[in-house]
Amino acid sequence: MIDLYTWGTPNGQKVSIMLEACRLHYSVHPIDILNNEQFGEDFLSISPNNKIPAIVDPEGPSGEPISLFESGAILIYLADKTGEFLPPEGAERYEVLQWLMWQMGGFGPLLGQAHHFNRFAPEQVPYAIKRYSDEAKRLWGVLNTQLTKRQFVCDELTIADFAIYPWAARFEWQGIDTTAFPAVNAWMEQMAELPFVERGMQVP
Predict the structure, then answer these.
(1) Nearest Cα to 76, choosing from 121, 131, 154, 15?
(2) How far apart are CA 159 and CA 109, in angstroms?
(3) What mean pLDDT comes out for the span 4-23?
(4) How far, in Å, CA of 132 to CA of 142, rounded?
(5) Rounded distance, CA 83 to CA 116, Å?
């Protein structure tokens, strides 16, 4: 059974969606980041960057245990472990990986800044709010263009969808009117109806 160390954030939800989609048995260990549990010594030994999510798989490569942090790395590992939601080779694999990296490098951290300055900053910083809200809209436009002629981000359902969806689901925190991005809106409705996505979004 895989041990999942997580909290109710988009980065955590990516991995729980994947675990549910692959029908893997896992045990949830909540790490309350609001109370700084991510800085505990036990968790540090699993996640050197003090960030959720992280996993420990007792049946890793060659049957040896493995611990992993960074949500993108975990998604790739689970896809390779199960042979699901990531093509094994060729151009199709790299297309999925590029959209996963797009999420990891932009659609996650920059939207996270929009969340912070729109909802959690102790004082209003108009420059920061505008900067990150504008970037959120630009990134949503990129995603909308990609989804205009596709059912999923890379034609078939992949880890790219699992990585992007939890961040898109917090559109209100980003000041996004989803009706302005109809292709993304349709994709989100489709993703939300998948039972394993619904279950994964509820973890922990």
Answers:
(1) 15
(2) 18
(3) 98
(4) 15
(5) 36
